[in-house]
Write a structure and sequence with these properties.
Length: about 110
């Protein structure tokens, strides 16, 4: 006899229970925000300055919504009073990226 495991019981679950289980599974996949060493911060700063000065495309790794996400684009402006960068993504979408969210950056040739 074949046992279908959790599939067998999911049809008997209330929608509220199913949502709660999905939320618990999502929380288990949360990533803590990495703390950056001083030399890593300096490297990111160097990459951002070079990309802004020369109009080069940059690949960012950012911490957002308890996960590390990737963004690629060209930095067009630094807004120091808001601590943000204005980025034009490959799709043409304009992104205002908060500097505190950046955990890594590299120039894409």
């Amino acid at each position: 006899m074949k046992d279908r495991g959790a599939i067998k019981w999911s049809a008997m679950m209330l929608p509220e229970h199913r949502k709660l289980l999905e939320k618990l599974l999502a929380e288990q996949q949360y990533v803590e925000k990495p703390s950056l060493a001083q030399d890593k911060c300096e490297e990111i700063n160097r990459v951002l300055l070079e990309a802004l000065a020369k109009g080069k495309k940059v690949g960012f790794k950012i911490y957002q919504d308890h996960a590390i996400q990737s963004i690629e684009g060209v930095i067009t402006r630094h807004i120091p009073e808001q601590r943000k960068l204005k980025i034009i993504a490959e799709t043409g979408r304009i992104i205002f990226l908060n500097l505190e969210k950046i955990v890594d950056a590299e120039i894409i040739e």
